[in-house]
Amino acid sequence: xxxxxxxxxxxxxxxxxxxxxxxxxxxxxxxxxxxxxxxxxxxxxxxxxxxxxxxxxxxxxxxxxxxxxxxxxxxxxxxxxxxxxxxxxxxxxxxxxxxxxxxxxxxxxxxxxxxxxxxxxxxxxxxxxxxxxxxxxxxxxxxxxxxxxxxxxxxxxxxxxxxxxxxxxxxxxxxxxxxxxxxxxxxxxxxxxxxxxxxxxxxxxxxxxxxxxxxxxxxxxxx
Length: 223
Ligand SMILES: Nc1ncnc2c1ncn2[C@@H]1O[C@H](COP(=O)(O)OP(=O)(O)OP(=O)(O)O)[C@@H](O)[C@H]1O
Ligand SMILES: [Mg+2]
Known about the structure:
A 6-stranded mixed beta sheet has the order 6-7-8-3-9-10. A 4-stranded antiparallel beta sheet has the order 2-1-4-5, covered by helices on one side. It is α/β, with parallel strands linked by helices. The chain is built from 6 helices and 10 strands.
């Protein structure tokens, strides 16, 4: 299949002058559509940085990122960037990022609403798939960390993204739930959704098609 993501010579340096920190150095990567990619690496190695760059939430110091053949690092308009994000990408942030003033159901349906669509039915189905359908009316503050994390995954899938960027989506889940999410992601990849998942759980590698480890500013293919 054609490559959905192509990264060419990507460098990210935070800060300036003496205070600067080079997190990614000349990183290149190609991901075929429908691949489940797992990204491992020590804390502080730049995994979230890489995901944020692909999701256009931050800009690289040098290099290019292509999404479906289009250079997204060259898109200047914030409206175009957010449209692309909303319609083609789903995000699960490292910290769930649910909006506290909305119920679970409303949170999960929100990406649809931002597109002018009522996605409550799909949101409820997704919540049921993740075992939290019965509590969809609850507010995030009244839920466990793992329940919120599963809701965040459901929300990322609301608009049927082509690319799912998931930053440690299973950190608060027990072993069985974790494995279920890895299996779900593998199944979604078989349906054609490309998944880039950051994790500290090496067990995830068993479910992935491809595994990269980020270490000392470089990406190393380990599966
Ligand atoms: N906005 C920023 N400004 C300056 N430095 C930053 C910024 N964001 C991240 N960093 C630094 O860049 C490095 C990489 O951070 P990043 O969050 O990408 O790591 P990570 O691999 O996701 O780590 P973790 O596994 O702990 O989530 C860290 O040393 C961090 O302190
Ligand atoms: Mg991180």
